[in-house]
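Priority: low. Protein: Sodium symporter small subunit domain-containing protein. Input follows.
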Amino acid sequence: MNTNKHGYPTPETVAPDVIEQDRKRAYWRANIRLIRTLLIIWAFVSLGCSILFVPLLNNIMLGNVPLGFWMAQQGSIFTFVILIFVYAIQMDVRPV
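Result:
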């Protein structure tokens, strides 16, 4: 690290550190936003579609099965796997 005659870092060495910290903060801010969004979807599917809205969803038939039952048994699992893939792809695409 370059220092001046008083031992303090020169602006050339301080600026990259500040830029790097800003990049890290922006990365984690975006990561937390993505996690929050995926958790909201997860909560809606697991609580809403599988428990709270089952009577409404049971009016819709998916083949020979009511949609509320299907969401509680299979649909929520499919949604959770899709959420995992979305998170993994987003983390792979996002620069560090």
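The first strand starts at residue 61 and ends at 62. Residues 35-96 form one domain.
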